[in-house]
Design goal:
Helix content: 25-40%
Number of strands: 15
Strand content: 15-25%
CATH architecture of one domain: 3-Layer(aba) Sandwich
CATH topology of one domain: Rossmann fold
Length: about 425
């Protein structure tokens, strides 16, 4: 019976396979099955104004995907995600000519959204033409309610990017109703796993990226506090990319800290070349040779130097050296000023870099590492050594205590 049914099904599929596909689509929904070469279902990707970040993503940033960022506190995770959201708005405006579908949703569990900082990073808060708000912040909601509210908002088709900040600060109903201090193991991880699975469908359907932020905490593991990532193990599997964001250096001018250099490393990438890392300069305010936010212009100039489009001799920069239209600038500030006064030339120079990255060119490939980050590995080794030292010390104390304790003498025989 089963064999006859299988042969019948095979015969139908062979006779009229197209009708069978149409039947499956009508039975299970429009997006249940589609042609892999159909342009309407292809991945949608953009490039950033920060070329090193684009390069770290493998040449382009996929919109219909979940992107996870984790790292230590004050590493720049929220800063980076806010910048990416602003870039999504900008690309949407360039594609459509208006901000109708350039809204951003921020699930602000940390309650740290800052208007001024967001504007410095390129986030557009209100539509310049209509004055209507473009950024919508969800706060004071349980994880379950956040998910439902977010799904309704995204289903409108107006959201171009979502920031989930962060899973460590999210709280579900069972945790809130539970007695303070009472164990409720796995409740948060289970809620996060369910939420990200539901969100994944909307991310792909409406081509809106989800920037998921996780923290690094000390795990309760024997006597050593090894670094672990919040959100539960399930959250690791659904994002298409995973970056670790860490602070590298402080940027100073005349003894004043004006910014930081953040290091981002790609540990997972299903949308491009994986295992890339880069350094990004983030400034807290405008200066003579830098702008507030992530310095994209400086990155383009540095990459043009690497490609040989701009040559550097000491403090002097030469654009088109040896040609009739050669230009000479003193320092990075002079180079920025000239490109700012000649936007058409800067557009041409940017196109050279962007075209190479679109081809997945391995610019500065010497920074590619497959092994785990050296600093992270060193930290784990130090923690392991500390654990072994603690165990040895406790063993020595226990041995010393047993030797000092007087032994009971046996009673004398009468």
């Amino acid at each position: 019976m089963a064999k006859e049914k299988a042969e019948k099904t095979s015969k139908v599929a062979a006779d009229d396979f197209d009708k069978l596909l149409s039947k499956v689509e009508s039975q299970f929904g429009e997006n249940s099955i589609f042609n892999g070469s159909d342009a309407a279902h292809q991945d949608v990707k953009i490039q950033f104004d920060a070329p090193r970040l684009t390069w770290a993503y493998g040449g382009a940033f996929k919109l219909n995907a979940i992107h996870r960022f984790n790292g230590k506190e004050s590493g720049g995770k929220t800063t980076l995600c806010t910048y990416i959201a602003g870039q999504c708005q900008k690309r949407k405006f360039e594609a459509e000519g208006n901000y109708k579908n350039a809204h951003v949703c921020i699930i602000d569990n940390e309650r740290t959204f800052d208007v001024i900082r967001a504007q410095d990073l390129g986030l557009i808060l209100n539509d310049p033409e209509t004055g209507k708000p473009l950024v919508h912040v969800l706060r004071n909601l349980y994880v379950e309610d956040q998910c439902v509210a977010w799904e309704q908002i995204v289903a409108s088709g107006r959201i171009c990017c979502t920031i989930y900040d962060s899973d460590a600060a999210a709280i579900n109903k069972s945790e809130f109703d539970n007695e303070v201090g009472k164990a409720n193991f796995g409740a948060g991880a289970k809620a996060n796993g369910t939420v990200i699975k539901r969100m994944n469908y909307f991310v792909d359907t409406y081509k809106t990226p989800l920037l998921w932020i996780s923290q690094e905490r000390a795990a309760i593991e024997m006597m050593a506090h090894l670094p672990s990532v919040t959100g539960g193990y399930a959250v690791n599997f659904y994002p298409s990319t995973r970056f670790r964001v860490t602070p590298k250096d402080q940027i100073t001018r005349s003894g004043e800290i004006v910014g930081i250099t953040m290091k981002i490393k790609n540990y997972k990438n299903k949308t491009g070349i994986p295992f890339r890392e880069c350094l990004l300069d983030v400034y807290f305010r405008d200066g003579e040779d830098f702008k507030s936010g992530i310095d994209g212009e400086g990155q383009y100039i540095d990459m043009l130097v690497e490609l040989g489009e701009i040559t550097q001799h000491g403090a002097w920069y030469y654009y088109h050296e040896g040609k009739e239209d050669m230009q000479r600038f003193q320092g990075m500030a002079g180079t920025r000023t000239w490109f700012k006064e000649h936007p058409e030339e800067f557009a041409k120079a940017k196109k050279v870099v962007n075209d190479l990255m679109a081809q997945h060119s391995a610019l500065d490939s010497s920074t590619v590492e497959v092994d785990e980050d050296a600093e992270f590995q060193k930290e784990k080794e130090e923690q392991k050594a500390k654990m072994e030292a603690n165990v040895s010390e406790l063993a020595a104390q226990a041995l010393a205590a047993s030797e000092e304790q007087p032994t009971e003498e046996a009673p004398a025989e009468e």
